[in-house]
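User: I'm putting together a teaching handout on how multi-component assemblies are represented. Below are the sequence lines for each component of a complex, exactly as they appear in our records. Could you produce the 3D structure of the whole assembly as structure tokens, so the students can see both representations side by side? Please keep the chain order the same as the input.
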Amino acid sequence: MELTRGRTMKGSDRICAALDVPDPQSARALAQKLSGRVGMLKVGLELFVAHGRAAVDAVRELAPIFLDLKLHDIPQTVESAARGAGALGASLVTIHASGGAAMVAAAKKGLAAGAQSVGLSAPKLLAVTVLTSLDDADLTAIGLGGPSREAVLRLGRLAVSAGADGLVCSPHEVSALRAALGHEPWLVVPGVRPAGSAAGDQRRTGTPASTVRDGADLLVIGRPLRDAADPGAAAETIAAEIDAG
Ligand code: C5P
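Assistant: Of course. Below is the structure of the complete assembly, with chains in the same order as your input.
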């Protein structure tokens, strides 16, 4: 399914639901509850490592797919893995920007080749800057010292100049990245928490309306939808919150 982008997007189009569930059947059940109320579905590591292509096939006709693989390896290996991912029919695929410029370029090449091999258009390549679960103390501990915002800007610039179509960043960095990189790159933002929901392990969080106002294209929302008594109603509430903001 095709992905739309732009100022005219409705609140619901901007929600990407993370299908963080153990199997394709649960993914499909959750996706059906959200169908028509979100713009995109995210298949991440939990589902993909256990079930591979079947995880994507289970939900592919319900919405465009964000395949969140967060690839990070030597360029040759990432290119080959991206070739496989490019043939799966996803609209967005992720890598880690910290893999470096050559790895980002290799991923782009692999996605294009994989998509072409099955007659599809290439998925957009998104680079994860800094995981939204890390705070400044965590960054210092892994040797990426300094404020997270600086690491995000540095990695964001690197990835976009190496060919990434967009970035994954926290709500806290959206406006700085927009100011630094302009309108072109997609900004996809996890760690979004509607008023009153638990942060869980996310550290750098923001609300749906403020994150879109700052310049985010898509909001990745997992537990606040998955764990809601009525996920469809929860998605509608978030969409309304975005539209109102
Ligand atoms: O449940 P929650 O809303 O925190 O889910 C966020 C989703 O976004 C998870 O699937 C997680 O893997 C993903 N993600 C993230 N931080 C990033 C990139 C992706 O939390 N930097």
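A couple of points students might notice: The pocket of cytidine-5'-monophosphate is lined by residues 18, 20, 44, 68, 128, 131-132, 168, 190-191, 200, 202, 220-224 (CB under 6 Å). The CA atoms of residues 109 and 175 lie 29 Å apart.
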